[in-house]
Records
---
Amino acid sequence: MSGIKVRDLAWGRFAAPDLDRAEQFLTDFGLTRLERSADRLYMRGADGGPFLHVTEQGDPRFLGAAFLLDSADDLARAARLPGASAIEPLDGPCDGQRVRVTEPNGYVIELVHGMTPLAPMAVPRDPTNSGAEPLRRAGRMMRLSRSPTPIRRSGHLVLTTPRVAETVAWFRTNLGLLRSDDLLDGSPDRIVGSFNRLDRGEEFVDHHVLFCAYGERAGLNHLSFEVSDIDAVFQDHEYLKGLGRYEHMWGIGRHKLGSQVYDYWCDPWGRVHERWADSDRLNAANGGNLVDVTRENVASQWGDPFPPRFRGWASP
Ligand SMILES: [Fe+2]
């Protein structure tokens, strides 16, 4: 164990040959441009962390992801991980420092500290008058803000990999992630998927910050982001559909493992980006489960069935 427990997923880093097209997609998807240079595009969310998405000029590739560290001590620990870079300055718009390490599939994981948080952006949304809370909007009409509704924060990273057990062990050992649900295909040593969450002790966190799914080829399955509410998932699904520019992958539905209401869209180079609302939230005391891969255990609680082409989806 490295002793490091990462605080949160910070961003995904991609390469794309056309930054205009990348920015158009990401803007339509609900991210907001923070900074753009000749060869870099930084997009932010509404909450106050650093940016959530980086695109570098280049052939289309998923480059890796970044996680936030709690302290300079953790950054020093990160630099002692096997194969780690030295501590180096981040050259983006939020300053800070990073250590680069390579996970078992060859993607670069940036471990970052000391970044200047962005001021939160207001996202005016009305609460619903439903169920046990019929008066959350008492005396007010619901008038939803327009699409695209802003992405709030990073959610999770999903890697497809032929080496699920090795990949998961790497993230748990080096970044301190905890098992939420491991998916077993027949026997306890045949792990075909693994949902992992942050270890923040008593603090409640998303059901998963990393999912690894078995596939013959390693790659990015999807990168995911939280939006303000379930209306925003539906509203922006209609918005993106109406634009007619992007390929839809899956949704809308409600997952079983994690319970999010989800919607998945491809960027212009086939990299899947997810918008979701309403995750299960667990803390360290919740422990983890071994789950047999049966339809009952993994199918959505409602919504369209899982599209076969999304299984093993791996953007290089
Ligand atoms: Fe997801």
Note: The chain has one domain: 8-118+150-310.
---
Amino acid sequence: MILTHAGNASSGEREGSHNQESARGMKEYKTEQIRNVVLLGHGGTGKTSLAEAALFSSGGVSRLGKVDDGSTTSDFEPDEVKRKISLSLALIPCEWAGHKINIIDTPGYADFVGEVKSGIRAADFGAIVVDAVSGVQVGTEMAWMHAERAKLPRVFFVNRMDRENANFEQAVAQLQAKFGKGIAPLMLPIGSQDSFTGVVNVAENKAYTGDKGAAAEVPGDMAAAVAAAREQLIEAAAEADDDLLSKYLEGEEISEEEITAGLKKGMAAGLVYPVFAGSAAKNIGVSKFLDGLVADCPSPAEMAPQTAKNNGGEEELKADASGPLAAFVFKTSADPFVGRLTYLRVVSGTLKADTHVWNANRNADERLGQLSVVKGKTQEHVPALAAGDIGAVAKLGQTVTGDTLCTKEHQVTLAELVFPRPPFNVAVTPKGKADVEKMGPSLHRIAEEDPTLLVHRDEYTGETIISGMGETHVDVAAERMKRKFGVEVDLHAPRVPYRETITGYVESEYIHKKQTGGHGQYARVNIKVEPNKGGGFQFVDAVVGGSVPRNYIPAVEKGVVEAMHEGALAHCPMVDVKVTLFDGKEHPVDSSEMAFKLAGSLALKQGALKANPVLLEPVYELKIHVPESNTGDVMSDLNGKRAKVHGMTPDDGGMTVIDAEAPLAEVLRYATDLRSITQGRGTFEMQFHHYEEVPQHIAQKVISEAQKGAAGG
Ligand SMILES: Nc1nc2c(ncn2[C@@H]2O[C@H](COP(=O)(O)OP(=O)(O)OP(=O)(O)O)[C@@H](O)[C@H]2O)c(=O)[nH]1
Ligand SMILES: [Mg+2]
């Protein structure tokens, strides 16, 4: 039976959840027969459509799904269907020419970079999808950068060749200008726009047309272009292959096999990047793309071994099905129905269903139940996964993304995944009474499936803060909480944890006196109030002669501490104040601890108001990575944010690092601002550095807002 896919298979509340029905039986594949490719690229270039066309071409679905109808295998989550963009990575295994190509589709939108990192880790090479109309876009550069950092061999797929203004040559020229000479077309398009009908494989000098890639004559007018492209391809391939180079220089005939061997070497060395052409929507060029992945791209067995830590040392793990077991967890998803689903790549050995494995990161035994191959939202049970293959297992107890599963006898851990620190913070509050209790646990589960989403409680403001990569990321997380766990929340800008202190010295006296029939209340407290910069709060008992009896002094201190919690200016905590109790008076009958506490509290409140109180704000340290060409705009924006720039240095990725500090109040939405200034090229991290006095004109605003707030509520 052929499996039906997301858009038309699901309904009701199970929509979007993983589906454990088994699909048509998938063969078991040996390591050499596997290809793991991650699709990368700017948003909307057609990655999901390409994955769908590949699946359709390989017979994995009976109808070509469309992103716009929400009917693709890859974008199966309801929020992906609604927004018509990918939000999480998806696995699309395609059985092709006796091989299994595990396609990992990733989101192009920058907020979901965590999924891209996970996808890259599971893959052996990448295919960067480029729009034939727009050419190189920001997302193309970002994809290149991520792949480069991971030393991932890569190819390009120039997609949307059927569109008006599609221009393959121009796209390739842009790629070469940006990424160098190693960019070499392996396929040339036949025609373009309305007349785009197929591709010519320049290594073979053969043409393939239509959605089936039927063999055809190379159009006569393409001969020169094909010859030139072939030359360029061989030159690029010869960069890493001396035999090929000398043959080429001596003008000898070069076979297709020799080109393939050269391409493989060149890709592994990061010297060659073959370019494919096609239209995912029309399913043209896709079958030749799959052929190319099988013929020219590395199997897991051809990849360099991975270094793992073992007891006290290191070892190299090859993709060898009979080697020691090591499976790397690159993603975890929290499904309200199926439970936790752990995605893993078998790096070495063979992972078998119904066995015990050892999680060396947590030092814990895990029982594996059923093992499956994942296709979009469906899972098909398999008895085993060989080294190099990718699959999933449900309901593991302790394992999280980044862990390695092995055996207790042979314990290894692979390098963990490193995710960027999310720079965008929002405060989250439950919408209704029913949401109060459910909010915490569901936040926890949402964060568990996304390492770029962090949740914490701000100890100063008491707010629950979600940190994500950007506004969309956090919005999607909130929608997911509602859909998956039925919890509704409100999101708003976090409060700035202002503080107060004093800058002057005063003596303050407060007499608490009440005469209400019977017992009255009486206490007098005299304190000195002075700044204690950097020294925190200090209470000094300087009472002489028992003017305040010993047993009441702790009560005075308690009152003072209470007043410190809520400053006189804007109800913010006071810091760095030294209070010296030097005098006071009791009444033999009417004094009490209560009375002294009150007097202590009010003595400080009144004193602080006279001691030149000021408002303090948190200042954050920022490390901003931007392209050289954006530094001017970023600096002038920082100027408007009361920031101080400490320096600019080049980083190791060809960017400029700007070191600066700025008040938190000015950079609450910096993730959004920086993105718009740099069109998404810039990234930054920030962390708390120190408190600083708020300039007078700004302090006035904060104070009057705080007083309004207090009066209103
Ligand atoms: N004309 C034309 N349209 C295409 C082609 N490929 C994709 N599209 C359309 O382009 C839009 C975006 O396609 P997707 O497949 O969602 O692109 P994506 O790269 O997966 O996008 P993200 O997941 O958001 O990064 C959809 O409307 C597709 O139907 C193509 O080859 N030709
Ligand atoms: Mg997509």
Note: The chain has a mean pLDDT of 92.
---
Amino acid sequence: MSFKNIFCQDRVINLFQKAITNNHLAHAYIFAGQEGIGKTLFSKELAKAIFCQHSGADACDTCSHCQRIANDHFPDLVFILPEKNSRTIKIEQLRYLQDVLHVKPMESKYKIAVIQSADKMNEESSNCLLKTLEEPPSYAIIILIVTSLESVRETVRSRCQIIRFSPLSMAVVKDILVDRFQLDTKQAEQLAYLSNGSIERAVLLSSSRALENKRWLVDRILTLEMNDNLSFSKELFDEWHIQDLEVLEEKRSQVKELILSFLLYYRDLLVCKTGEENLPIHFIDRKEALRSKSKSLSEDMLFHILKVIKTSLEQLDHNANINLLLENMITKILHLQFGRRITQATF
Ligand SMILES: [Zn+2]
């Protein structure tokens, strides 16, 4: 792999190739963009391009440095990831990073540290990171990978160069699923639509019950009635096996997938309503039903519903009671959709 295998990020690649050629790399970057579009993969390819023993602004993929980076075995490149079943980087991991950066590079003139989920740190961890960013060693390049730039503290943000990554196009996701994951074309196409430009989500969807869950959900929302409020929430928890999950983080990620499905469903209705033929319909195999449903809803109402769903998605990371969060979202949606006061569910 080299930059040639990074898709849809030409602007970012050009920027870094210029910086490498002109020796103008910054000490700290924030890579921002939705999950699963290749930010981590890019950081590895960038490290290869920087450390490659051959001259030029891309990796040769054959020298000892390139090969050892590909095998996660290069001493001047360190990745800091959240531990299993944790969403956040712990302070001990950042202290370890400080120690690592304190030691000069062993095989090159730079030392690169990539920190995953840097937008989900607590106060203590953020302060520790800030200290590192305030006085980085001259040879350090620190890359923070985030999905939400708004969640990064201003003091951290102001010390980094911000690089925004674009979602992948449907066609690219489909091709990657066929070429690298050997899915058949039809399945790859369907997953590409549902993944919203994220390879990670597409692969996740292909390897679990997720696709069936989503189809069930769409069919169920299409036939929802005003009085379904209470029973629908319970049905959701059962059908998506949310109650069966014991680890909170697993539960949270399942609820996130559920809320994203609501988002895609109502976005599809809006696309049908406005007749924007060039925008993709995610639930393509339910296109006719969505079209017909969209006739009974107003654009204004759909915008309001989408706002409710987006707010729930934002609150999910900070909310301990995810059952209640989901409950409230459904109640608000039904209230907007049916325009009358409906029974508030309780858990
Ligand atoms: Zn090389």
Note: The chain has a mean pLDDT of 87.
---
Amino acid sequence: MVIRLAAPLSKDSIVDGEGLRTVLWTQGCLLKCPGCHNPHTHDPAGGTVVSVEAVKFELRQIRLQRGITFAGGEPFLQVAACAEIARFVKQRGWNVWCYTGFTHEQLSLNPAFAPLLEQVDVLIDGPFVLAQRDLTLRFRGSRNQRLLRLERGRILAVE
Ligand code: SF4
């Protein structure tokens, strides 16, 4: 299995979720939100294709992280590969955060998204809306986005 990445893994991030985290930057997003900070991640044919096994190998070398954060780009355009990586890091005791331009409701309605959604502990959902941009929000860019704590895909808490 392969995954298309926008950038190398970023380890030791403290701004993409709680605790020290490794960020996986997926390539490809169809939403093209005005004001998106990562426009280079939009092209579904851009970035670099690597094997999921190579990503796992690299993750094995990374220590002292609380979890992984899937960002992009749109992680849910690469459900199978992201789900495989999420399962792998969970076996190592890491938690899983994921940014998505979809809402939780949209993801829940489509069973194709379930393999990844069921692995996610915290979902930051919804597109970036420039008119609702708010620099004071924790881990989010605009007020429409929610920080959702999930268990097996279901919402436990909304922040
Ligand atoms: S969903 Fe995220 S990556 Fe995609 S265009 Fe919007 S802000 Fe950018």
Note: The mean pLDDT is 97.
